[in-house]
Amino acid sequence: MDKMMENAKPPLTLLVAAPRGFCAGVDRAVRIVELAIEHYGAPVYVRHEIVHNRFVVDNLKARGAIFVEHLREVPDGVPVVFSAHGVPKAVPAKAEARGLFYLDATCPLVSKVHRQAERAHGNGRHIIFIGHAGHPEVIGTLGQLPDGAMTLIETVADVARLSPPDPDALTFLTQTTLSVEDTAAVVDALRARFPAIEGPKGEDICYATSNRQAAVKAIAPRVQLMLVIGAPNSSNSLRLAEVAERLGTRAHLIQRAAEIELGWLDGVTTLGLTAGASAPESLVREVTDLLSAHYTLHVEEEVTAEENMIFKLPRGLDVARA
Hints:
Helix content: 25-40%
Number of helices: 12
Distance between the termini: 51 Å
CATH architecture of the largest domain: 3-Layer(aba) Sandwich
């Protein structure tokens, strides 16, 4: 009987992108919260979501993490962790003024952008920062320098409206989780309008963002629908869905398997699946399990890059890990 039911399931080929899911910066940030709870005991406060993923945040809450948006919500005498997106300089300064013990889980690649901004500012250059207004990473980066030292832009159209104090003393930097193509277009416009503008020696868009976008590009032309596991406030996850759609492939951003509407798959014989950099692999398995319940699933993994990046933990927690 089970065999007859299995045969009754329609076939579905599932192309799973690789790399996908957790990047080294997210893995480090989540581990910092886990180890802080183990080492110092609950509760451990976290300023802003440690990463933009509700499943991850809820799991950490269950273990003793308390998430807040403002430092004033953190009581005296408990550890506080700053999220992977980074924070303005004023935040650790306020923590120190209160005598709070804090752990900085800022992704090292975001911290690199912060250092680049400080160097450029120290060299007397005005910084054009390419990013999405209101995103925590952007707020954190803008907050590394005095007001007015950086100008935020998002699009090519914004370039035409720029009126920098000295067009010959400009540097551009970017948010780490942007669309590779969109950012390249904005950079080209900046270079065309301001030939003397300087940029980072390497791309600010992080390796994980670039790799996940490249993996989607590799499979999107071969599927009728792309599912992207990620939160609606996750910049890198939103970009993955956009990449697929620009290639003419329908895409849905989902947080959990339960959000999948089987009607989306009507007429679909080949489905694509990926996960943003803040989505754990367990959510990928959750989706494949749901699909297996309704389809005779043939799974193929499309590997476009190998990732072996590991970031060191903050001093003290590296000992706690052992």
